[in-house]
Design goal:
Distance between the termini: 23 Å
Radius of gyration: 17 Å
Strand content: 15-25%
Mean pLDDT: 78
Shape: globular
Order of helices and strands: EHHEEEEHH
Number of helices: 4
Strand order of the largest sheet: 1-5-4-3-2
Largest sheet: 5 strands, antiparallel
């Protein structure tokens, strides 16, 4: 599964279709162009984190970004709280593709974020699993279930309008 977050620690997230919306047009550009033109607005951490990405859709330039904590005891460099939940920053990016709009809900395994997918111009629900080893196995089970559902939907040919209501 492709990691979609800060690569400092492994974390699972799930992306599910929320509903289609029309948003401002954001052009996919090269990483080199983004770093050159927006580098001064990226945190020091992001300036190196962004380099492996081949597609950039959103930078979260208006977000009150987390500054990497070099303080001993900071969880995942300040990106997580002591429970292992991601410290949500509205208007920040996830994987330079999703814009965090808010929190839809919280549970014992993590939280669900309302995000704008700037690649597909659609709202998405992104499930963030807590950054604790014991939750990773459960996350893999959920990924398998979602993959099976996606396969079954494509096999029986449900069109996209009916899929949104599932």
């Amino acid at each position: 599964m492709r990691r979609l977050l800060k690569p400092a620690h492994f974390r699972f997230i799930f992306v599910c279709r929320f509903s289609d919306v029309h948003t401002r047009h954001i052009i996919k550009t090269s990483v080199q162009f983004q770093v050159h033109s927006c580098g001064s607005h990226l945190t020091e951490y992001e300036q190196t984190e962004i380099l492996p990405y081949s597609e950039i859709y959103y930078l979260g330039l208006n977000a009150n970004k987390i500054q990497v904590a070099s303080v001993p005891g900071a969880c995942n460099h300040g990106f997580d709280d002591e429970r292992g939940d991601y410290n949500v920053v509205e208007q920040d990016h996830l994987a330079y593709r999703y814009e965090v709009l808010g929190i839809l809900g919280k549970g014992s395994f993590g939280e669900v974020l309302k995000c704008m997918d700037h690649k597909h111009k659609a709202l998405r629900a992104v499930k963030m699993i807590r950054n604790k080893r014991r939750f990773h196995q459960q996350a893999l089970v959920e990924v398998k279930i979602l993959e099976n559902l996606r396969q079954k939907v494509s096999e029986i040919g449900i069109n996209s309008d009916k899929r949104n209501s599932l």
